[in-house]
Amino acid sequence: MKSFPKLVLASSIFLALSPSQVQADTIPQQQYIDVKQYQLSASTLKQALAEYSKVSGVQIFVSDRLVSGIKAEPLTGNYSAKEALNLLLGNAALKAIWKNEQAVVIKKSLTQISETKSKQSAVREKATVEVIEVNGSRTQQGLSSLSRQTTIIDNDMLNRELGASANLAQIIAKFVPGMAPSGQTMTNFGLTMRGRNLLVLIDGVPMNTNRNVSRDLFNIHAAQIETIEVVRGGNAIYGSGATGGVMYITTRKATDVVQTRFGFGSSLSQVQADGFGYHLGQSVGLVKDNFAFSLDVDSQVTGGYYDANGYRLAPEPSQGDLFDSKQLSIQAKARYQPSEEQVFELGMVSFRSWQDTDFASDPSVAALPIYQSAAKAIRGIGLDQQNEAKNLMVNLAWYDQDVYGHALSAQAYARQYETYFYPFDGRPYGGWGHIAQSFLDTKVYGLRTLLTKEVSQHRFNYGIDVNLEQTAMPVIVYNSDAYDKSAGLNFVSEGERTFMPETDTNSHAFFAQYTYNSMFGLTLDAGIRREKVDVSFDNFITLGQGFNVDGGDLSYSDTLLNLTLDYDFDHGFGTYLAFNQGFELPDVGLQLRYANEAFNIASSTLKPVTSDNIELGMRYYGNNSQIDVSVFQSTSDQGRVKNENFGWTLRRDEEEIQGIELEASHAFTNQFNLALMASKIVGEEKPEGTQKWQDMNGFRIPPFKAAITLSYQADDWMLQTRVNHVASEDYRLAGKDGFGRHQTKSYTTIDLMAQVEKPWGSISAGVENLTNKDYFPLYSQLLRNNNNTSYIPARGTNLTVSYSYNW
Q1: For 537, which of 371, 476, 503, 636 could close a Cys bridge (C-beta 3.0–4.6 Å)?
Q2: Strand bridging mode 573-584 / 552-568
Q3: Which N-terminal stretch is annotated as signal sequence (predicted)?
Q4: Residues ≥6 apart with Cβ < 8 Å to 109
Q5: Residue 335 near residue 254, CB atoms below 8 Å
């Protein structure tokens, strides 16, 4: 394995990205303005916040390292909840992020009040409160300390960033160090976090399925997202799938806001009517007494994509894409609060995205040597069922601040998911043997609970998780003669066949977490999770060879541990050392669809992936500057089930991944801010049955990436530009090309964004690829389809303008 010190020395310049400030909420809730009497004596800030919470009824979520060692002055008098909290925070360089009228998250702030001002006047003069909703995720219940490195993106930032990105996956990849660069397709395949999988949750509901189809980030319209919280590093907080990190997406909260949204976008490298797209959205809400209800409806039409030379982009023939598509997303929430301690919330998301294009990818370029020709779009496709994704989820949550002395967070959820891919010519591969279009049909039911108890400097978190999943993956088989005679344009269905049989995957887990906060800056986190999984499937016949495979069942379990030590020095410096074990269920479907007649699930390689993650971090939070550096190592005795070149080879390789990430930002003035982000990751694997280590491929280990962001924030408008860079990398073994193993080229792009915020709404505009750079994204250079049909250029210059009006 490469020496880690050499990696650190070779990566001497690191850049970080930090969220820009957003405007304060213009619609105060009742809890914010109700005046109560406070009689708080001088104490530590942690103790003062606990007393404040009892008086105000507001639940406080705060990382202990942020308040450790800070003193709070007495607070006496009649104040609203907001006024009292701002007075307590005073000059502590912290800001209050209001989740809703009942909960607030305390975060670090880049600006600090002048010490010459009194606290009373400072509270009334300084408007730095960000109003976003975090929705009480587990990472906000104190468990974020398991990873430490966290990025939060709010709704305003999303609206701004959508102007310079093709989709949500692209936005996240530009913000978060350690995440692989994104392509411009309908997939997060290859979008790894620290070389491993990222678990995506929407309001606590997992978007992953056991048969990983890599569309987790395409299940809701971005306009309906309130916040995105990305916690980097493997952990088992939410169970299976978070070996690389967790992305917690919170949908818009139930308020009485009535908002109309409109936007349009167009290619500027080739201005054509079919390259034009638009977005329409409407939000309505009602708040009365203890009840609140809201409904969000967003419809979007996406036009064709054009490269920097003005040529239309070909469809991505492996994972699918988003151009010439339509989206309809409906999100509803109802909240009932019978008392100060209890909240019940019912949420629903219905999302559908479907493609309707006249273009196909010309299969003739597949016969040419790789990189000799880019993928070509040809008109005249005859395919009834094109790329599509449908996601329906219902979520019932219950929050109670006093259940036998505990704070309770519980939810029950149900999800139905269906998605279609582009047909694949699998005739050369034994596991396929047909021209076939795969699709996934999944039903999921789950329950999550979390109980929290605080006693003095001690905090206890524990609960149970249950997830029941039923997944099948059939295929539509198409006539070979019709396909060949039409040069890959005409798809005549011959009916459905089984690719992966219906499989039940049921998991049950118990977890417990303990946190101790000393009075001298040391914080200890320690936890355990016990996971048990049962898998079963019925008899089936394989697609490729027509083997008869007997059904079976399998049970396995694992115990996962975590331990973190964090220490705050004086003057804003701090450090931590963390050990976390990540857990991931094996992709059962991938092995089943390549099974032979002798297959026996009990003797298969279907064992879970357990990763051991060690991380060392250092930080500095000054008045106007922030620096976060982390180095990590992640090892696993068995990686995920791997199939290369769509054939029969299935392996479980030993893996070792190391990396370094850095984020830094500096506020030169209250208006002008510089942010930097960068990460470098290396990874090696020891193929099953060998003793020789080799570099991992580019779909797992991204090259060095960096971004520089300059932003100027005035009273009601802001201007931002970002330079994005992805370095070159040679993933070949002994100079030979293979799946995800090619020599890639570097590319640098520039995005420009502007936003105007008014009490009545906002106007945003963005230009992606400002200089009209002609390049191929990393995903395209790695040739997902193993030939030139996946060698698709990036979009040229693209303009997006959006407008929202609050009635």
Answers
A1: 503
A2: antiparallel
A3: 1-24
A4: 93, 94, 95, 128
A5: yes
The backbone region for 455, taken as left when phi is positive above 0, alpha when psi lies in -120 to 50, beta otherwise, is: beta
Which DSSP category does 21 fall into?
P
CB distance 785 to 792 below 8 Å: no
Strands 325-336 and 342-355: antiparallel
What is the DSSP annotation of 328-394? EEEEEEEEE-SSSSEEEEEEEEEEEEEE--SEEE-GGGGGSPTTSS---EEE--B-SS-SEEEEEEE
The rounded distance, in Å, linking the Cα atoms of 310 and 305 is: 9
Q: In what order do the strands lie in the sheet with 198-202?
A: 150-154, 225-232, 245-251, 198-202, 205-206
Q: What element of type H or E holds 475?
A: strand 458-478
134: phi > 0 → left, psi -120 to 50 → alpha, else beta; which?
Answer: alpha
Rounded CA separation 306/181 (Å)? 20
Question: Alpha-carbon distance 286 to 295, whole Å?
Answer: 9
| Span 186-227, pLDDT tens digits | 988 999 999 998 999 999 999 998 888 889 999 999 999 988
Nearest Cα to 675, choosing from 14, 38, 74, 42? 14
- The CA distance from 767 to 762, in Å, is 17
**Residues 610, 562: Cα–Cα separation, whole Å:** 13
Instruction: Tell me if 696 sits within 8 A of 682, measured CB to CB.
Output: no
Task: List the structure tokens of 581.
Answer: 């074990």
Give 592-627 pLDDT, tens digit per residue: 887 877 777 766 666 778 899 999 999 888 878 889
Q: Quick check: 31 pLDDT over 50?
A: no
pLDDT digits (tens, 9 = 90+) for 228-272: 888 888 887 777 888 888 899 999 988 888 999 999 999 999 999
Question: In angstroms, what CA-CA distances link 607 with 101, 162, 301, 376, 639?
Answer: 45, 40, 43, 41, 10
- Report the alpha-carbon distance of residue 505 to residue 592 in Å, rounded: 14
Question: Do the Cβ atoms of 148 and 576 come closer than 8 Å?
Answer: yes
Is it the case that residue 689 has pLDDT exceeding 60? Answer: yes
CA 197 to CA 234: how far, in whole Å? 9
**DSSP classification of residue 164:** G
SS (H, E, C) 271-292: CCHHHEEEEEEEEEEEEECCEE
- Reading the block at residue 496, the tokens are 């459905």
Three-state SS for 514-576 is: EEEECCCCEEEEEEEEEEEEEEEECCEECCCCCCEECCEEEEEEEEEEEEEEEEECCCCEEEE
Paired tokens of 583: 């857990």
Between 636 and 35, whose confidence is greater? 636
Contacts for 63 with CB less than 8 Å, ≥ 6 apart: 106, 142, 144, 145
Residue 318, pLDDT score: 83
Q: Cα(317)–Cα(443) distance, rounded to whole angstroms?
A: 26
Report the run of H or E that residue 666 belongs to, with start and end: strand 654-667
668: Cα separation from own chain's centroid? 30
Please report, as a single letter, which amino acid is at residue 222. A
Q: What is the pLDDT of residue 113?
A: 27
Are the C-beta atoms of 687 and 638 separated by less than 8 Å? no
pLDDT at residue 435 in the model = 94
3-state DSSP call for residue 621? strand
**81-89 helix and 45-56 helix, angle to the nearest 10 degrees:** 180
For residue 165, how many C-alpha atoms fall within 13 Å in the half-sphere facing its CB? 22
Collapsed DSSP state (helix, strand, coil) of residue 214: coil
Q: Which residues contact 734 (CB under 8 A, 6 or more apart)?
A: none
CB-CB contact of 157 with 130 (8 Å): no
Burial of 668 (0-12, 13-18, 19+ CB in 10 A): exposed
Q: Of 221, 213, 227, 235, whose CA–CA distance to 280 is shortest?
A: 221
Round to whole Å and give the CA distance between 173 and 176.
Answer: 6
